[in-house]
Predict the 3D structure of the following.
Amino acid sequence: MQWYQLDKEKLEQKLHVTTERGLSSKQVEKRQKQHGANELDPGKQTAKWLIFIKQFQDFMVLVLLAATLIAGLLGEYIDAIAIMVIVFVNGFIGFFQEQKAEKSLAKLKELSAPFAYVLRDKNWERKPSRDIVVGDVIKVSSGDRIPADMRIVDSNSMETEESTLTGESLPVAKHTNSLNKQDLGPQDQSNMAFMGTLVTRGSGTGIVVGTGMNTVMGQIASLMVKTKKTITPLEHKLAELGKILIIVALILTALVVVVGVYQGHPVYNMFLAGVSLAVAAIPEGLPAIVTVALSLGVQRMIRKNAIVRKLSAVETLGSASVICSDKTGTMTENQMTVKEVYLNDTRLDVTGDGYDLLGDFYSNNNRVDNQFPNLKSMLLYGMICNHASILVKKGKNFINGDPTDGALLVAARKLGLNQSDSEPYRIIKEIPFDSTRKRMSMIVEDENKRQFLITKGAPDVLLPRSAFIMSTNEKRLMKTADKEKINNEINKMGDKALRTIAIAIKPITGKQNDGLLEDDLTFVGLYGMIDPPRKEVRAAIEDCKEAGIKTVMITGDHEKTARAIATDLNILPEDGLVMDGYQLNQMSSNELKEIIDRVYVFARVTPEHKLKIVDAFQQNGHIVAMTGDGVNDAPAIKASNIGISMGRSGTDVAKEASSLILMDDNFATIKAAINEGRNIYENIRKFIRYLLASNVGEILVMLFAVLLGLPLPLVPVQILWVNLVTDGLPAMALGLDQPEADVMNRKPRPPKEGIFARGLGFKIVSRGLLIGLVTLIGFMMTYQGNPENLVYAQTIAFTTLVMAQLIHVFDCRSERSVFSRNPFGNKYLVLAVLSSIAMLLCVIYFAPLQPIFHTVFLGIRDWIFILALSAIPTVFFGFTKR
């Protein structure tokens, strides 16, 4: 039912109610049974213990748990405990993240008003909002939150703040007239008030037409319940990697065990070696290292004004190919600012943005002051006919009241006017703003007891009522040419997306007829104001373009405003398209998918539209980042690959649905996050390369030795020691590596790009093969077929493997060559390598550990031999650059 189309009489007939009596008790009881309570349904809830169990259903986790059990049975308790700790820590992290995400609907419910004033059986009563039913007559006033969707039947200058629901940046004036248009979105239903929105001005009465899940807020809650959480690229790639590693590891270890037993090695020894190799081949420390790398990225992001609610969000943003950004507050200051003034047939430019009181007035690039004819008077009138005030908190200016009134106050302060300048003027009477009248007036008396009227309002309303105009020297009759000039200036301001407000005055002589009070006005001038773009956003958008990321503006504002801001920020190319909500309604999902890559601006959109837009981009293979601050943004934020909410202006609902919160509500912070995200992903690739190349080396040295009929070059405890101690610290240090210089000049990674893309698979196998070969060469050259040399040869092989890995870690810092970066540029890596070497020396030279780790003392010649072998893989590939 399109309630906004019905007039009051038809509405009362349809709902069997009158605004004089309200509903009867019987009607209320019947409707409560029929429609239920006026509250949002949180949907099907999953038990907490099931959410926790679900964290351990991953195949890689199950295999690790099985390996842990076997390792424990074989007495390898340290390894078993380490794996269990890592698995359970990651399980708890996933559990708590999922719990936080599901709080979104609870935050939605908090937006509902707790109580409402309801007319029942001719009596006004204060009732809990959950007891409201369709047909109830509700009274609201300034400061109240709307308890349900209702059709306004009486409005006394009523305005509601709907930005959290519709994205509209300014308060919406409400009227009682029916609207005849079809399929209007909530942002255009100016005779309706919606659940969860706030009355900012005036008062009104309405008849409830929707409760609970049948409200616009309920539709958003329903979308959030139905919207599926999108798996991040990192989660997908790690899952893919885990499956590959498990299959390869099981095949290779099974081959080692079978061949070893066939060649006469004891079954128990080969089984223990096989389990050790399986555990070594599956880098169970990888999830923990990824978590640490992302956590450190989160700490860096906090210093850049971004709070990460979900660790993988940082990496995901680094792979984003489209940013769908809200306009108001993210790309703009969310502070209405007067940018132009028109008076005396002259346009003045006003400098300064937002609520900063510093700024100047210019005519043709020449600064003017308060001596400019009529300028001081015009700004003074705008200051007197005003209900806003400027507040200062922590050194920053804020507006208490209507943003438009605030813009007029700030403009006056830029010319040097302040509160003391308006004190000589006493307000006699006020005719408040009304959405039908589109103007407000005040009768004031100056210090000489002269009274005059100040009227402020829409130019198309004041201009026909103006018989005179203020010129440079005097007041004179307004001519047709004057009106044409003013209308021409209004159109020019409109093309720049400036909102225009006119100021007019009228002397009061004798008794005035109230009906004629606002006629025969003297036109003073025009204000042109806008919510200005943030200074740093244009550069951030350019940086995103260079990084291959498309920026799309999505707003609830009008198309002309959106187009002007997008053009100013250089978002909209010459051949770029702008679409509004009406056009989106006429398009199917497939039609939108075909055209969406050419669209850069979406205006007058609803929550359903935003979901449709995000889905269309994702259907075309994009990784989508969606920003927003309102309840209306929450479903699309949740559906996107990465949801970004605003820390200052954002609602709790948007924050709970998001993965990243911008503390400064600034688009430029997103660019910093992209830089950080790309670097983190590259660092993850670095330590995956390091860990897997090391593991490949360990498996191959064992496999080759078994195939050649040699004794095992490494005993199980050495394999586990390398896996748990030597690999861990350097891999973690790689997660702290600084970004390479060209990280923001690369195109976004294709969504289907595998973790081994761009030659990573070749690097892992080739380096691992060479590490395994030099380790085997070291073993064979010292063993020489003499069983008495076995422990000595195993010590050489063990040390060669460790040193080859520790030298190789510096090669992992670059996709190009070990010689392309300063090897000492990452001080954490240098410390990690030195720590691993110190632990290696303890195992070799600390006598009590020698029998445990099967090692013996090594001399200088041994070390020269080991270091020469260990350097071969890194030096060889450093020169080949492959």
